[in-house]
């Protein structure tokens, strides 16, 4: 150990032997240690130095001792506490399990019965502590440990002990007590007297997240969340999950009331309501949201007024506010034709799959039908639900302005079908890798292809094409013009919005408009204009809107206008439509981007790695199989982490910018590409095995995919395959394989004699191999569409086709050295990321990412009169800007 842990280990060496760091929280660092006297594993928690600096050790130990007498089956006991060489610490049992936070990160939402059981057990522990005069003050998923499925509450009385020991000097620490998402309103307003009802509120917040997949209030900062806790109502949990029983929803609503007097008077009362099918909270559950009671305490009214002044003054909270939503209803889908979040393309990605008729009478959606998809019609004014014939394999549907025709893509063919069945599905034109489609007139469709880099108008009557000069991913029409709002391709894909003239020839003056919040990324592929407002889906699955001045490009403050939209990873897709009547239709769900790592053997047997479930993107396994380099979605861009594959412990690599494509060299060097936060500058970086500073590769920028040796790197550059010879961090030679179509993800066989890569042939992804290093000839080895090859140690090749994976066995003495592909296994939950979404482990298994969210949905959500909510947002330049 280095730094403070070494001094700490020395100070405690007569009592505890520190073995490893388990985690860090807001107030303490947690270590796994051995209790030398009792020969047992313990969790040793050490307060942050800046916190310990203002706490009197004697007072802290005195306060924490009052909690040591708590003995309850769902309370983690306190073993020891004290001071050692300036460190303040306390000791609890080490539980071989996981926290509720880890479980929620992995599963997002829990079963209703399981969530209620956990809450009931925690409520029992709280009631016991409350009767002994102890308020927890920091109930949150991180403080609920699960051992064999049984919850145990940790850190009882720690928040009170720290607060009391600080003697009102908490502001000197720079820290705050309580986690903002689960704070009660009285904690958020710094009330001096905190009662048991504060813990009830926090526990209600935890249950809300277990059921809804998110806490009651979200925000971009702790200040935003606190303001919302004080001032904004909580949406009913049934808005996010209709299967929650009425008594459970009512109990949650009562637990989350703003006024303590309106909540349950005890934790046991909360538990009884959860188990009583007849419980109802009275008029509170009839309101549009929890906490809408206009009667506030004077303290709360003052806090709300202060929050309003901060907003009006353009302070830290001025970037976003939330507008209450109108009435909501759910429309069920047939059990045999659920909405599918995964399409039938070779990549198994998630594109927008829902369209609504202009008048809001019906929707057409992509349904999962066994191993394939097809389009289904669902009435919104009746019970009719039926398939549209001839739409097998459909994705990216769009609806004509008159609501009579549905366009869609199947394979590489653009088709259209009559909604009423009067005309069968008919071919219109060939298209390549569709990214988004939009009807712009009665006979004109815009198709954005190849990740938005190629866009063209297609006449639906005869298939005639007209190429658009500029990039236009996921286009939106600018009202009253022939112009388009586009997400450009390239490094600023998720940050900026530009407009192009309809023919793409003359860029308009709005090019490069940054959407609000000091350039915070848009993180959306679903963007459109309604009136003078721009509407989009953010990275948290919220629908946001902002005033948008079409003449100057000015964008006003962003406002959340609907929560709970399903969000995916690769395209950051959301599935929604707005009707002419002003209704919003969308597919609700949790964040489908959250994934966990699974190692799958050739026969399909999967092993889950202990790495935390997050929005992981690209990844690579070290030669010894013990380390995994991962890029993950961060607030300011993609971050690089290195995890221990055996323990799941990870460290973030400190580099500035968004990072992609990490690849390990045999000697432990790590290569990756980085894009600086400001501008489009990209570089290929090399991080040496000793972990010192990364240095840029001099002479070329390449997206690395494999090292042959430490001196030979293979990757992609501008759709070409490049083999780079290195001398340190300098390029000695770069051999480029230029082919007619896009090439990507090259990987070298274990014997280093063959290179496999994905490529396109007539707009369809295929799999090719070429002799290495000569690369003199190419062989197509896929029978049908294929993507993302990976070699196994035995010389066989595995590739993706949609939701299934195929294996090409080795064929000795042949050229190419592979037999015909055979189905290995299918798994609709394996994610496709923005780069290679698989890699080989040394034991012959293949590492994938598996989403923890459902891949189908059984109902749609309709927000009636949603346009009225949108109209509440002031115009650009108005008083809130």
Low-confidence stretches: 165-178, 283-325, 490-496, 504-523, 876-881
Structural class: alpha+beta
* Mean of residue pLDDT values: 79
Percent strand equals 35-45%
Number of helices: 13
Largest sheet: 6 strands, antiparallel
> Gyration radius, to the nearest Å?
28 Å
DSSP strand count:
61
Proportion of residues in helical segments: 10-25%
Give the N-to-C terminal Cα separation.
Answer: 50 Å
What spatial form do the alpha-carbon principal axes imply? globular
Brief synopsis:
It is built from 13 helices and 61 strands. By secondary structure, it is of the alpha+beta class. Strands 13, 14, 15, 16, 17 and 60 form a 6-stranded antiparallel β-sheet that branches. A 5-stranded antiparallel β-sheet has the order 1-2-3-5-4. It has a 5-stranded mixed β-sheet with strand order 11-33-32-31-30, with no helix packed on it.
């Amino acid at each position: 150990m280095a730094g403070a842990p070494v001094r700490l280990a020395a100070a405690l060496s007569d009592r505890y032997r520190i073995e490893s760091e388990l985690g860090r929280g807001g107030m303490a660092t947690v270590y796994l240690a051995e209790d030398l006297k009792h020969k047992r594993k313990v969790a040793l928690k050490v307060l942050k130095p800046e916190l310990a600096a203002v706490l009197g050790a004697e007072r802290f130990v005195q306060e924490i001792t009052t909690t040591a007498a708590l003995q309850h089956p769902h309370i983690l006991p306190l073993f020891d506490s004290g001071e050692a060489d300036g460190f303040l610490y306390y000791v609890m049992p080490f539980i071989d399990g996981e926290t509720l936070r880890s479980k929620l990160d992995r599963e997002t939402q829990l079963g209703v019965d399981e969530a209620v059981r956990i809450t009931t057990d925690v409520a029992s522990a709280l009631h016991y502590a409350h009767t002994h005069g102890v308020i927890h003050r920091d109930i949150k998923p991180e403080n609920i440990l699960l051992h064999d499925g049984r919850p145990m509450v940790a850190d009882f009385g720690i928040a009170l002990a720290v607060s009391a020991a600080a003697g009102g000097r908490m502001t000197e620490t720079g820290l705050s007590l309580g986690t903002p998402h689960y704070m009660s309103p009285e904690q958020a307003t710094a009330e001096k007297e905190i009662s048991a009802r504060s813990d009830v509120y926090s526990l209600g917040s935890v249950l809300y997240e277990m059921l809804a997949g998110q806490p009651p209030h979200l925000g971009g900062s702790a200040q935003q969340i606190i303001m919302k806790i004080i001032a904004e109502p909580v949406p009913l949990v049934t808005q996010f999950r209709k299967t929650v029983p009425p008594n459970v929803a009512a109990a949650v609503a009562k637990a989350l009331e703003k006024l303590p007097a309106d909540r349950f008077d005890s934790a046991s009362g909360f538990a009884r309501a959860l188990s009583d099918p007849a419980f109802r909270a009275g008029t509170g559950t009839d309101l549009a949201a929890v906490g809408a009671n206009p009667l506030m305490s004077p303290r709360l009214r003052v806090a709300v007024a202060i929050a309003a002044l901060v907003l009006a003054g353009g302070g830290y909270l001025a970037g976003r506010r939330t507008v209450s939503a109108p009435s909501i209803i759910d429309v069920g889908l047939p059990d045999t034709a659920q909405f599918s979040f995964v399409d039938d393309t070779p990549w198994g990605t998630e594109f927008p799959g829902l369209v609504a008729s202009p008048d809001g009478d019906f929707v057409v959606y992509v349904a999962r039908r066994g191993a394939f998809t097809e389009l289904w019609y669902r009435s919104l004014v009746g019970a009719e639900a039926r398939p549209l014939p001839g739409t097998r394999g459909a994705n990216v549907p769009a609806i004509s302005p008159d609501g009579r025709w549905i366009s869609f893509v199947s394979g590489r063919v653009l088709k259209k079908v009559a909604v009423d069945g009067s005309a069968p599905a008919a071919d219109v034109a060939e298209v390549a890798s569709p990214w988004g489609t939009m009807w712009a007139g009665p006979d004109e469709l815009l198709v954005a292809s190849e990740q938005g880099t190629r866009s063209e108008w297609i006449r639906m009557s005869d298939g005639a094409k007209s190429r658009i000069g500029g990039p236009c991913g996921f286009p939106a029409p600018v009202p009253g013009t022939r112009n388009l709002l586009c997400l450009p391709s390239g490094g600023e894909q998720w940050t900026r919005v530009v407009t192009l003239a309809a023919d793409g020839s003359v860029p308009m003056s709005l090019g490069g408009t940054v959407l609000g919040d000091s350039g915070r990324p848009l993180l959306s592929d679903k963007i459109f204009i309604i009136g003078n407002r721009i509407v989009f889906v953010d990275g948290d699955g919220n629908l946001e809107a902002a005033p948008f001045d079409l003449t100057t490009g000015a964008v006003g403050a962003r406002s959340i206008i609907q929560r709970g939209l399903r969000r995916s990873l690769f395209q950051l897709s959301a599935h929604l439509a707005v009707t002419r009547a002003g209704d919003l239709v969308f597919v609700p769900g949790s964040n489908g981007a959250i994934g966990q790592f699974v190692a799958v053997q050739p026969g399909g047997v999967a092993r889950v790695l202990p790495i935390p479930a997050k929005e992981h993107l690209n990844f690579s396994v070290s030669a010894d199989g013990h380390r995994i380099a991962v890029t993950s979605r961060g607030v300011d861009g993609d971050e690089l982490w290195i995890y221990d594959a055996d323990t799941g412990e990870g460290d973030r690599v400190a580099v500035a910018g968004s990072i992609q494509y990490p690849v390990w060299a045999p000697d432990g060097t790590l290569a990756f590409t980085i894009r600086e936060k400001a501008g489009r500058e990209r570089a290929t970086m090399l991080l040496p095995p000793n972990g010192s500073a990364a240095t840029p590769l001099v002479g070329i920028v390449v997206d690395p995919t494999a090292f042959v040796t430490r001196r030979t790197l293979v990757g992609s550059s501008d759709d070409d395959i490049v083999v780079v010879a290195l001398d340190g961090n300098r390029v000695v030679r770069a051999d480029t394989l230029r082919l007619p179509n896009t090439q990507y993800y090259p990987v070298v066989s274990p014997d280093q004699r063959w290179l496999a890569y994905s490529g396109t042939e007539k707009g369809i992804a295929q799999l090719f191999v070429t002799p290495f290093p000569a690369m003199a000839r190419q062989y197509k080895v896929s029978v049908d569409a294929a993507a993302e090859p990976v070699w196994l140690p035995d010389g066989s090749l595995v590739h993706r086709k949609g939701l299934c994976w195929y294996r090409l066995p080795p064929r000795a003495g042949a050229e190419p050295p592979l037999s015909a592909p055979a189905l290995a296994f299918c798994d609709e939950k394996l994610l496709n990321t923005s780069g290679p979404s698989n890699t080989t482990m040394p034991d012959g298994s293949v590492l994938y990412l598996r989403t923890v969210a459902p891949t189908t949905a059984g109902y749609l959500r309709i927000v009636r009169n949603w346009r009225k909510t949108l109209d509440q947002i002031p115009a650009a330049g108005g008083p809130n800007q």
